[in-house]
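Review box. Two proteins, two foldings.
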Amino acid sequence: MTGATRAGGAHPQYVQAGRLVPVGGYAPAGGQSTRLTRCIGPDGDEYVFKTYTPEVREAVRLPALAAMTSWRLDLDVADRAELDRACAWPRAVVLDGHAVQGVLVRPAPPAMFVDASGRANAWSLPRHLDALARPEAKARKLGYDYYPPPVKLAVLARLLRTMLWLHERGYAIGDLQPRNALFSFDGRAADVLLVDCDACVPLSGEPAHAQRDPEGWKAPWPEPFGVRTDMFKFAWLVARSLQENTAATAPDPDRLRAVMQSRTCDVLVELCGGGQPADAVPLLRDKSSVWPTLVTPGALYVQTDESLRRRWRPVGAPPPVPTAPPPPAPAAKSGSEIPAGFVVGVALVVVLVALVLLLA
């Protein structure tokens, strides 16, 4: 990799395509790219080379794209580690001479891929967030895992944390929709990787790519990508995942309130309608911490108005059968206690004596 030299050493903003060594396939391409290829970079590390379509290569703003790689390197060590964990952020711009060909990003963890039968299988089928909206009957029929509501919220909480983290550091996701994030879930904890991060937009300054997103995820106003559009799209991710319908056009408050508190539901519904509730950010920041804790190895839980931690059970499942309390233990007898049989005998004798006296 080549680039300007800074205090920390070489600044790898650019790499020539001819210096990349292909090592295998990756996930299917789409959107901005014609091909995704695993390769070894000049530094010896493994990357994914995202090759842009001719239209994207023609329109991309090279200075803005290079600024994204510089921004990552200018972060402190802790922030850079968090960015690398949560985002497939562009590491370098790939050139052919002076012409942009694409970007290098890090590969997603193997646990975020499955094969056609739903089993973990690196570099096969990416597990996108739209798997969260798959109804249980369809998932079982296809052989895939089904994700119950507490797991859906735990996964989305990881994406939410990344979204808020980027907002605090001057970036919006922009094209926020299910196909732009991968996730893994091991039965206890979830992890999420935001992909297509070269489409993220600075909150001040010029983005690298023209604004575009799928029709079903467009905000209903002409405002450029930013915090408001991210919040709108995230609210719809929650609603459509819980309603198990990626084409839903209206949030279902009853479905939402079954697994969350009313105020959380109200905020999400308002965001879906394009509103900007004043407490949306602090409330969602709290949920980004709480929702993952409701998934445990032993049970799944939800927060509702009635309980901050109620055990979740599927809709229509019978309530748990209450266990009958054990019978009380017999009282211990003391040495001076009069046996019950003796008392009954004495009472009978008294009655017989009274009868004899009356007859006499």
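Next protein.
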Amino acid sequence: MKKNGIQGYLFTLPVIMLIAVFSLWPILQSFVYTFFDYKLNDQQKSGLYISERFNFDMFQESQMYVKLFLEEDRPSITDVSDQNKVDQLIQRIETVENEFIGKKGVQKINGTEKEKILSLYDEINATVSDLTQKYQLPNGENLTLIMQDLKNSIIPSNFIGLKGYKEILSDKRMGTALINTIIFTIISVFFEFILGLLLALIMNKAISGQGLIRTTSLIPWAIPTAVAALMWGYLYDGSSGIVANFFQNIGLVDDSRELLLSISGAMFSTILADVWKTTPYMALLLLAGLQNIPLSLYEASSIDGANKIQTFFRITLPLLKPSILVALLFRTLDAFRVFDLIYVLTGGGPGGGTETLSIYGYKVMFAQTNFGYGSVIVMVMFVIVAIIATIYVKVLGTNLMEKN
């Protein structure tokens, strides 16, 4: 018995490893990022630094330019004592440089090394400030700028703990993105479920051309989302879009350009495109559940005198409950994480009117290269998705394997 248990674990080990590598590890990595002010566009925050570090590459490059500029500006210095100061400073820089030969990248430094670097910086800063006040140095402005890079070689810890989570609680843009995501998810999933159920009931009927109907209905779902978004973008175009002009002609909108240029119009447009795209997917999941309901139950209800409405609510819906759970769960989670449709169709605009959590997280992480705060947004999404999944299981059934 014990041997069989070990063999069972060995069989499941590859699956566990795949889940750990492709699912758990990215989540864990994102969770770690949330505790750091991690920004790729800032040299002092481009890594995860719990303790203070030193960028030896930046230091070597900065001191090289300081020596070069000082040597170029030396002929402009007329006072002999000031010339001696420059020579002594260059020699001092070379002395410190020799002490750090062989060290590269970002490494830890001890207190003595840090003291030498700070002392050198103060000495260079004092000398350069004195010379720029006395003389018109050709590289005076460049020396002032390069001094900042020299000081930035010392990298402080960017560990911030829970500050990112505290910041997100007061982030108004985050609140707007969350509301947009909830509105998009609730409305789109509601209409997809109603229309998908009707479509599944039609496809489940034994009618002529049933195969053609099923194949045709799945075409929108088979189209790549980015392609579908581009297609709907042309249809919504205010000047030549068929859908935009049709809505204007029937009085649904006052101006055809409002579909993508107003907040309400853009949200309506994205929801309509998503309903058209994913209703067949919802229908496909519900159709699988309908086909698992025994026909004998419908025959028995017919003999007992039940009408179609009673049959639907007493037999079809209760037995379809597990399939409804799966369909709603998958579609709700997918809609809550929507990215490609909105990104291609509206880009989150106008004015952030269609910016969802995924769009906001993408902009923070890749447009601003702020991976620390972007990871906080991702973790908030992860928690909300987990809550949604728990609610669905609790409301519609805690065990999908159980049959009503």
